[in-house]
Specification:
Elements (H helix, E strand, L loop, with lengths): L4 E4 L10 H13 L5 E6 L10 E3 L8 H10 L3 E4 L7 H13 L4 E5 L8 H7 L6 E4 L5 H6 L4 E3 L14 H10 L7 E6 L10 H6 L4 E6 L8 H9 L3 E3 L7 H5 L3 E4 L12 H8 L4 E4 L4 H4 L6 E4 L2 H10 L16 H14 L4
Parallel strand pairs: 1-2, 1-4, 2-3, 4-5, 5-6, 6-7, 8-9, 8-11, 9-10, 11-12, 12-13
């Protein structure tokens, strides 16, 4: 008999236009073929037709409706995917879920590194879930010292949607989005925040025959001073929702991921995977799970400084790109199966 899985997350809310939301959405879509899955999110969320129950979720999940739902379903596993990733409060909420349904195993999926005060580090040892799933290895050792069981998940990508196109299609997309036809397009997709080191694109925009395009999230508040500065220098910023975001990758020539701050992006940046699936050359910092999964070569370059990024864009010596082949095996179906198998593995011990 298949085990009963209860998934709870504040992130099941359209538009699904940023990293963690996309992870949650694709996991749920690929998980719903399992019969015994119950999924819950907060009231007021637009879920794009997903089979999801909506309840009132306060900061501590102390809610009679949620408690009643858990008790009536009596799941074998509760999978919590917190909006703020592995914050101290996320571990508190997971512990409350354990107390609500003490026969269930509780699993947290953490997507982004967090920092803790001395006292919170100490208290984490008393709040440990039955399993912690992470997207990169960086914090695995730390959580294990707190007595937690930790597993690292593989990255994933929809390679049918994110794929290569021919030159005619590439330039038709440039016309569609009013992007220059005669320039090399340098792309970045992500929140418009100073913490993401987007200032590096100012120097890149000044390179002859280069046009920088940045696609920002519509659900995350932008830094307006940075937004205005980037636009004033001629950088094209798309800050509205694009359902066919793959077209922006397909019209571009180089993908740059300049993020240095550990908490400024999820541990496995989906935008880098999407660019690779479209076979773009990638210039990236040594961020999160990227270094766990991808080795450097001529068309996938790790950098340490903004000057390194500018130099590589200026040289533009990318030939016979094979980045798509590096992600061909990384499917959302495989990702979802790994999560389910990891959860069910708790019950076989």
């Amino acid at each position: 008999m298949e085990k009963k899985l209860f998934i709870i997350s504040e992130l099941i809310c359209a538009p699904f236009d940023e990293g963690l939301k996309n992870i949650v959405y694709n996991f749920i879509v690929n998980c719903q073929f399992h019969d015994n899955v119950n999924i819950v999110t907060k009231k007021g969320s637009e879920t794009n037709g997903l089979n999801v129950k909506k309840v009132s979720l306060n900061k501590l999940f102390l809610n009679k409706e949620l408690n009643k739902l858990l008790c009536s379903y009596s799941p074998d596993i509760i999978l919590y995917i917190p909006e703020a990733s592995c914050t101290f409060n996320s571990f508190v909420r997971a512990r409350i879920l354990q107390l609500m349904c003490n026969k269930s195993k509780v699993v947290i999926l953490g997507s982004q590194r967090r920092k803790y005060s001395f006292i919170k580090k100490f208290l984490l040892g008393f709040l440990r879930p039955d399993l912690l799933l992470l997207l990169c290895k960086a914090d695995k050792g730390f959580f294990e010292t707190k007595g937690m069981r930790v597993k690292i998940l593989p990255p994933a990508i929809d390679k049918e949607r994110f794929c290569c196109v021919d030159f005619d299609t590439k330039f038709s997309f440039r016309r569609k989005y009013n992007i220059p036809l005669n320039k090399t397009i340098v792309l970045h997709v992500g929140h418009i925040r100073k913490s993401r080191n987007l200032g590096c694109f100012l120097n890149i925009q000044n390179i002859d025959c280069i046009q920088v395009v940045i696609v920002g999230s519509t659900t995350t508040k932008k830094d307006y001073d940075l937004f205005r500065l980037l636009k004033s220098q001629g950088i094209i910023i798309i800050d509205y929702y694009i359902s066919g975001i793959q077209e922006i990758y397909q019209l571009s020539d180089i993908y740059v991921f300049p993020v240095k701050e550990e908490t400024a992006a999820i541990d496995m940046p989906l935008s880098v995977l999407e660019a690779m699936a479209c076979n773009l050359p990638v210039i990236t910092t040594r961020f999160g799970g990227l270094i766990d999964n991808f080795s450097e070569d001529k068309n996938f370059r790790y950098v340490d400084t903004n000057e390194n990024i500018t130099e590589l864009v200026k040289i533009n010596d990318f030939k016979k790109v094979t980045n798509r082949s590096k992600v061909k095996h990384l499917t959302w179906n495989f990702f979802a199966d790994k999560i389910v198998q990891s959860c069910e593995g708790l019950l076989q011990e």
